[in-house]
């Protein structure tokens, strides 16, 4: 800012403070009123329609929710007056702070081997950071390793743990189990086998999980083979959507998270007639925080997607960023570089967390932002990608953890009076 600009702003501030002091009372009243209507506007889409309402009322009422109070009848942490869905504890209104965490990974292809104690530890850290929702895989391979043979023990434990701590879940449904597709990243031979698994999972967790994402990055050739302009994916999506809504009409279907070029994929989903088969659009806009125009890149991806949605009459649907992130390493070098080149330091990563949440939570149509990912990995990706965590492999918090926490508390504190919290 140059000197003349500073003088002008000092001068303006003088005039402004006279104005503010002369009407301090009405200004505050207006601010509260504006904030209340802002809360209602932000959450209007969460008000259930008739079908959803019926489904919510039909759900088991025995949630064993110890935190219910007289003014928060569903115990979701939002006062009845402001609760968009006061009978449904799964809907806690606007809370953009979310993360991706590989809580269910326990295989020979990864280092995570979460036992019960480690899961408790990581979920407590999430609570401390202010995480409101966590995204993780409900792997078909884990759940139905052989046709008709179902295993839910691990998932029951994780879902209960998160639910007890009021952390919401976005469940990813995918990939192909070995008996059902050519490989994990191929669509199933027979869609009905996938739809059957979806039905089983949703009906099991419908009292606890409301949001389901269908596959991850179906526009990437790593996750979906062969790439065919989203034809096969949209076909599967349609069947899954109908089955999911039949099991739980109050659940929401989140489009599979699309890569940086997701705008083309979303255009193709519309082209293939997918418009009525998802409730939330979902993108993964990664950018290199070491580049000055990183945030501009992210916003460009978002705007292109928004434009495509508007063009197709989807003005009312929200956008979720279910992955955004960058590594934070102690000593950047060639070995711990990521796909964008040399990795940021832990401090630079923290600055990116502040930027990301500072900028994106200001966008009205962006409802949730998931930091990818919550905890570092150990030699899984064998690059800087192992260091995307807010906490290190040994669970110690990085500067980015504190940046996330500060931002989450600042934003959610603003809404506190409208959430029935002290
Ligand atoms: Ca409530
Ligand atoms: Ca509620």
TrEMBL record:
Keywords: Carbohydrate metabolism, Glycosidase, Hydrolase, Polysaccharide degradation, Signal, Xylan degradation. Residues 197-269 form the Glycosyl hydrolases family 39 N-terminal catalytic domain. GO terms for molecular function: beta-galactosidase activity. It comes from the Bacteria. GO terms for biological process: xylan catabolic process. Residues 113-169 form the Glycoside hydrolase family 42 N-terminal domain. Belongs to the glycosyl hydrolase 39 family. Pfam families: Glyco_hydro_39, Glyco_hydro_42. One of its GO terms (cellular component) is beta-galactosidase complex. The keyword Hydrolase applies. Residues 1-29 form the signal peptide. It comes from Velamenicoccus archaeovorus. Gene3D superfamilies: Glycosidases. This is Endo-1,4-beta-xylanase C.
């Amino acid at each position: 800012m140059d000197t003349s600009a500073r003088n002008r702003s000092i001068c303006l501030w003088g005039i402004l403070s006279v104005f503010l002091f002369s009407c301090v009372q009405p200004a505050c009243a207006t601010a509260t009123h504006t904030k209340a209507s802002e809360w209602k506007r932000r959450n209007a889409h969460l008000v259930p329609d008739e079908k959803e309402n019926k489904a919510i009322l039909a759900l088991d009422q025995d949630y064993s929710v110890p935190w219910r109070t007289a003014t928060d009848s569903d115990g979701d942490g939002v006062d009845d007056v402001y609760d968009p869905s006061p009978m449904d504890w799964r809907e806690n209104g606007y809370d953009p702070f979310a993360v991706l965490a590989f809580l269910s990974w326990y295989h020979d292809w990864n280092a995570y081997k979460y036992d019960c104690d480690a899961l408790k530890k990581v979920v407590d850290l999430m609570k401390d950071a202010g995480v409101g929702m966590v995204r993780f895989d409900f792997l078909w391979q884990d759940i139905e390793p052989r046709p008709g043979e179902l295993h839910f023990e691990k998932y029951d434990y994780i879902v209960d743990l998160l639910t007890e701590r009021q952390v919401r879940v976005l469940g990813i449904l995918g990939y192909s189990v070995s008996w059902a597709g050519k490989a994990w990243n191929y669509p199933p031979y027979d869609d009905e086998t996938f739809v059957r698994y979806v039905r089983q999972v949703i009906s099991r967790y419908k009292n606890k999980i409301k949001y389901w994402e269908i596959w991850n990055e179906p526009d990437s050739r790593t996750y979906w083979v062969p790439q065919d302009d989203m034809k096969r994916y949209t076909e599967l999506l349609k069947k899954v959507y109908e089955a999911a809504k039949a099991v739980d009409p109050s659940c929401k279907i989140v489009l599979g998270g699309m890569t940086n070029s997701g705008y083309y994929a979303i255009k193709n989903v519309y082209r293939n007639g997918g418009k009525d088969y998802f409730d939330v659009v979902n993108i993964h806009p990664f950018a290199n925080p070491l580049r000055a125009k990183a945030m501009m890149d992210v916003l460009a991806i978002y705007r292109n997607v928004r434009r495509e949605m508007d063009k197709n009459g989807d003005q009312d649907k929200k956008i979720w960023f279910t992955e955004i992130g960058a590594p934070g390493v102690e000593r950047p070098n060639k070995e711990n570089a990521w796909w964008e080149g040399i990795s940021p330091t832990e401090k630079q990563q923290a600055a990116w967390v502040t930027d990301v949440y500072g900028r994106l939570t200001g966008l009205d149509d962006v409802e949730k932002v998931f930091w990818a990912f919550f905890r570092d990995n150990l030699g899984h990706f064998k690059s800087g990608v192992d260091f995307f965590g807010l906490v290190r492999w040994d669970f110690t918090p990085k500067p980015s953890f504190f940046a996330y926490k500060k931002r989450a508390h600042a934003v959610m504190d603003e809404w506190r009076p409208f959430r029935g919290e002290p």
